[in-house]
Design brief:
4 helices, elongated, 36% helix, 16 strands, 31% strand, four-stranded antiparallel β-sheet, Helix Hairpins, single chain, OB fold (Dihydrolipoamide Acetyltransferase, E2P), Elongation Factor Tu (Ef-tu), domain 3
């Protein structure tokens, strides 16, 4: 009887422990179920990301060094660094007194040639009348004809000289070939510039609406870069903002940077337009030009 009683007590203890364990496990399962999230399974693309660093620089034709085609003294400089300019806007003026004198001299020579031509034509007409009544030698008519032809060519040469003098005078006014921002000023008022061998640079203009990113991609990753793929990058100035562009070129010539072979991938993007209501964004495009870019090029490789 004593053994039976001990067995009954043991079975009761085991049953109580099993009941307690089951209750705890059930409570934990309910708690985990409440925390679980249900997600619908969908088909998506697996992409690869290539990370690289680079620089933002103007495109070809977006940075122009404006100089003078003639020599002279800079009389007036109309812009400073940072000034926005429009295409055709006056940037600088040279001392034009010599060129004005040459133009006036050419204009006077043109008037003299015109007078000579008029007289030659009148003389030729008079001698033709005389030759018609046989009172003048034929050689006199030939001489008058030749004089009229020479006077006509002299008038043409004088007109060309005047046009050249006017063109040289126009070169004393240096205008902007593109619209942009003045990035640097190399010549100051009062300096003498000599354009005999090379055109001296007055100012450098940059069109901030035409920028691109040069991303230096490692040689191990360049094979995954394809033209037309989307690329996103950030700049140091606006670390929280992400810009988007597209790969437009991969330069075949390698560049060695820090003993690492890199290839240049060119990204084209549209610079953000500053918001007139936000003063913080007024110089966003100009700041981005001086920042280092950290591009990330990505592309899809099929659904999964």
């Amino acid at each position: 009887m004593r053994r039976i009683a001990i067995a009954v007590v043991g079975l009761g203890a085991v049953a109580a422990a099993a009941l307690l364990w089951g209750r705890v496990a059930w409570t934990k399962t309910d708690r985990d179920t409440d925390r679980a999230q249900v997600v619908r399974v969908v088909r998506r693309d697996i992409g690869q990301v290539v990370k690289a660093t680079g620089i933002i620089k103007p495109r070809v034709g977006a940075e122009v060094r404006v100089g003078s085609r003639i020599s002279g003294v800079v009389k007036r400089l109309h812009v400073r660094i940072g000034d926005p300019v429009k295409k055709g806007q006056l940037l600088a003026e040279l001392d034009d007194r010599d060129f004005v004198a040459r133009r006036d001299e050419a204009a006077a020579a043109l008037q003299q040639a015109d007078v000579n031509l008029s007289y030659a034509k009148i003389d030729l007409a008079r001698k033709r009348e005389l030759i018609a009544v046989n009172v003048l030698a034929r050689s006199e008519l030939d001489a008058a004809d030749r004089a009229a032809a020479v006077a006509d060519k002299q008038l043409t040469a004088a007109q060309a000289s005047l046009d050249y003098a006017a063109t040289q005078l126009a070169y004393t006014r240096v205008t902007a070939p593109i619209a942009g921002v003045v990035a640097s000023v190399s010549t100051q008022e009062g300096e003498t510039v000599a354009a005999n061998f090379a055109a001296p640079t007055f100012v450098t203009l940059i069109d901030l609406s035409r920028l691109e990113v040069w991303a230096y991609v490692d040689e191990t990753d360049i094979g995954r870069i394809r033209i037309g793929r989307t690329a996103r990058f950030t700049v140091d100035t606006y670390g929280d903002d992400e810009f988007e562009g597209h790969v437009t070129a991969v330069y075949p010539k390698a560049e060695i940077r820090d003993n690492v072979v890199n290839y240049v991938g060119v990204l084209r993007f549209d610079p953000p337009r500053p918001d007139s209501s936000s003063r913080d964004d007024d110089d966003r495009a100009d700041s981005a030009r001086h920042s280092r870019a950290r591009p990330r090029a990505s592309g899809s490789h099929g659904p999964t």
